[in-house]
Amino acid sequence: MAPPAAAPVLLGVVGDSAAGKTTITGGIAGVLGADRVTVICSDDYHRYNRRQRAALDITALHPDCNYVDILEQHLRALARGEAILKPVYNHRTGDFEPPEYVVPKHFVIVEGLLGFHTARLRDAFQVKVFLDPPETLRHAWKLKRDCTKRGYTEEAVRRELERREADSARFIRSQKRWADLVVRFEPPARPHDVERLDARVTLRPTLRHPNVQRLAACCPSRELVRVSELREGSRTAEQLHIDGRLTAAQAALVEDALWTQRPELHNLLPEQMGQFVDGLEPRRSHPLAITQLLIAYQLLLARLERDRVGRVPARGAALLQ
Predict the structure, then answer these.
(1) How far apart are CA 218 and CA 254, in angstroms?
(2) 114-168 confidence digits (pLDDT tens)
(3) 246 vs 190, 199, 288, CA distance in Å?
(4) Hey, is 127 helix, strand or coil?
(5) Distance set, CA 191 to CA 103, 135, 226, 261, 299 (Å)
(6) Do the Cβ atoms of 25 and 95 come closer than 8 Å?
(7) N or C end of the chain: which has fewer CB within 10 A?
(8) How does pLDDT run across 6-22, given as a tens digit for each residue?
(9) What DSSP assignment string belongs to 198-254?
(10) CB of 249 within 8 A of CB of 210?
């Protein structure tokens, strides 16, 4: 497929290993359409393979272990609508594979560890998202993923988590300050109800966000969707709390309240969102779906601006054809 006439819209999703980056981006890419979205992983830009990292005693989280300068060049090329020859790192084997020819489509999603590490990287994105689960939850996710999908033993995963902690705090979690949206899935405070995660989405004033007070007001059970104000240094942000007990009917009301604020963005087939794999078991989360829709909303707004739409289409699906 040829690149779009207007420059692509770039989304950056950053978070530590097993923070949920692939789950978030997969739902967004699926709903926007595979023929409209290019997804790349910035972790493909590792400088060393797994054996070399062990010999050098360096973690994959350290910038010196990654070709950050090449990633900067490639993001600038993608932002201009130009193709790149992207490296490929196989997380299962810990080694590199032949490079991949990548053509940017209308949307480019870049997920990985160091996407916001430099100003040049950050400037490439129209929307920046940081995933910030509690460390105990992220560790549990990493254990489950690496043991079931990547062939690690539990002992090896725990040892690697401990070895990475200093670099995680210094280089990964420090990138949170650059995000437009900070997404935190966490176990509920309710006892005996740990299966359904709550979501807290911090919406910083670096983007024009939808009116989240309307989203909360539309839910009959007010305690399930609520908004609070968050002070971050000299600026104020809104935080949307989405309870894991939200039903499908209640989630649909929230989704409708989002799209009615911009009718030209409506009809994004939200039933395709919120899907994730728990170990090897497919599941669905309404807080995840609403979070993905909030991000997709920003991408479509940016796409409208890029395309300089002169008239409002009857349905947002027209934007995706």
Answers:
(1) 6
(2) 999 999 999 999 999 999 999 999 999 999 988 988 878 999 999 999 999 999 9
(3) 14, 11, 11
(4) strand
(5) 48, 20, 20, 36, 37
(6) no
(7) C
(8) 799 999 999 999 999 99
(9) EEEEEE-TTS----HHHHHHTSSSTTTEEEEEEEETTEEEEEEEE-TT--HHHHHHH
(10) no
